Amino acid sequence: MTQDLFPGDPTLRSTAQALDASDPLASFRAEFYHSDPQQCYLDGNSLGKLPLATMEAVSKFVTEEWGSQLVGGWSHWIDQPQVAGDLLATATLGTGPGQTLVCDTTSVNLYQLALAAIDALPERSTVIIDSANFPTDRYILQGIAKARGLTLITLDTDGSGGPGALSLEVEDERITAADIAAYLSDDVALVILQAINYRSGARPELGAITAAVKKAGAYMLWDCSHAGGVIDLDFDGNGIDLAVGCTYKYGNSGPGSPAWLFVRTALQKKLQVPIQGWFAQGEQFEMGPDFEKASGIRGFQTATPSIVGIRAVETSYEMIERAGIGRIEAKAALGTQLMIALVDAWLAPFGVTLGTPRQPDHRGGHIIIRHPDAASIALALRKLVNVVPDYRQPDAIRLAISPLPTSYTEVWDGFDRLRGLLASGDYHGVEPESSRVT
Ligand SMILES: Cc1ncc(COP(=O)(O)O)c(C=O)c1O
Q1: Span from the CA of 246 to the centroid of ligand 1 (angstroms)
Q2: Which of 170, 235, 322, 437 is the most buried (most CB within 10 A)?
Q3: pLDDT digits over 325-368, tens only?
Q4: pLDDT digits over 54-79, tens only?
Q5: pTM surpassing 0.90?
Q6: Residue 276: CB within 6 Å of ligand 1?
Q7: What is the distance in A from the centroid of ligand 1 to the CA of 320?
């Protein structure tokens, strides 16, 4: 796919309204709770909106299951991470059952699978990540490398450096298979990249990179946090064996909702995660003296799952399954294309630049724009004109379309208000709030 011309005049609100009128996903918006109908919420890639069905499912769980069944509920709650994992895999990962668990956090799952992969190749001692990767991925791999005495290569795609940094010139942080090939050797055990970069929104070559890393005899672990639920990850088509991701972004499952991990069936026997919890024990309730890993994906579970969290995951991923990940990806592509057309038409004259690939299949559901005053503009968007983006150091504002709850008109209105803010200069002097969160 190459860069398409935006269909229609992006500067007219009627264009966005026409897109909504013909949007096959338009009806899903009414299935979400919108506390302020005037707000343009363009941060669904950070925390997704609340589905109405989740309110009911969680409340029903609390009273009719936890409240009434008490400990007896475990007889049918116990394998919920696998049931929800299968649903998530069918709805968003393009792969079959028995390979996905909804459990723990992305960070814990990343640690688990990274070490399992490294331990499976004891004769190799190099691990690779990129400097534009999400901090938790970089810090966890740094910790593992230090503890195990491994050589860490940080592909420096954004100039921020890091341990073992090697400069790599790429556009918008987007890594290709050819870029990776130069660093692969028979000493590399593991490569960790994001399926959609958290900041630039770039989508690397999932299939080609996976193939190159596997050909070199190493493991490829994808962090799909910003990709899951917004693009068709096609794990089977892309040959993806190991992956983790969260459910609270495009998965709309709530703050801190359980994350997921994926281990392809063919690897499940070979890999052993470092946290040998009791949920991975074959005969779990015999509570015997020695650990003997359960067969199948349960061998990768650590501990008691959050059932209330899983209920929220279930309602959201049932919606995604109904909508169809192909239609969701198509809306994300068109919505981000509308954003890019408006950056060009309205924002560029104010010194705003685009930090995201223009080719639709090189990105996901969010873009970043850069401006020297990004921090105060992002703040003013929230405080003065009721638009919710987020800010990423040092000069980036992230803006997303979450295809189920967000309309094209909401995107258009958000950009119109941003244009007004830049034109008025009212963002100068907006006082920051006392929060650690940007
Ligand atoms: C790409 C990516 N990976 C990992 C995480 C961390 O997830 P958690 O804090 O749920 O472990 C995030 C959080 O936003 C993320 O964006």
Answers
A1: 7
A2: 235
A3: 999 999 999 999 999 999 999 999 999 999 999 999 999 999 99
A4: 999 999 999 999 999 999 999 999 99
A5: yes
A6: no
A7: 20
Give nearest CA residue, ligand 1 atom 7.
106
Evaluate: CB of 238 within 6 angstroms of ligand 1: no
Atom of ligand 1 nearest to the CA of 256: 10
CB of 31 within 6 A of ligand 1: the answer is no
Q: Judge if the beta carbon of residue 246 lies within 6 A of ligand 1.
A: yes
Q: What are phi and psi of 309, to 5 degrees?
A: -65, -40
Range(s) of the chain covered by CATH 3.40.640.10:
57-322
Choices 3.40.640.10, 2.40.10.340, 3.40.50.150, 3.90.550.10: CATH for 57-322? 3.40.640.10
- In this prediction, residue 434 carries a pLDDT of 67
What average pLDDT does this structure show over 235-258? 98
List b or e across 43-81, with b for residues whose CB sees 16 or more CB atoms inside 10 angstroms: bbbbbbbbbebbeebbeebeeebeeeeeeebeeebbebb
Write out the residue limits of the CATH 3.90.1150.10 domain(s) in the chain. Answer: 13-31+325-424
> Which amino acid appears at position 243 of this protein?
A
Give domain 13-31+325-424's CATH superfamily. Aspartate Aminotransferase, domain 1 (3.90.1150.10)
Amino acid at 27: S
pLDDT class of 7 with cuts at 50, 70, 90: confident
Provide mean pLDDT across the span 92-120: 98
In this structure, are residues 366 and 45 in contact, taking their beta carbons and an 8 Å threshold?
Answer: yes
Q: Helix or strand or coil: residue 282?
A: coil
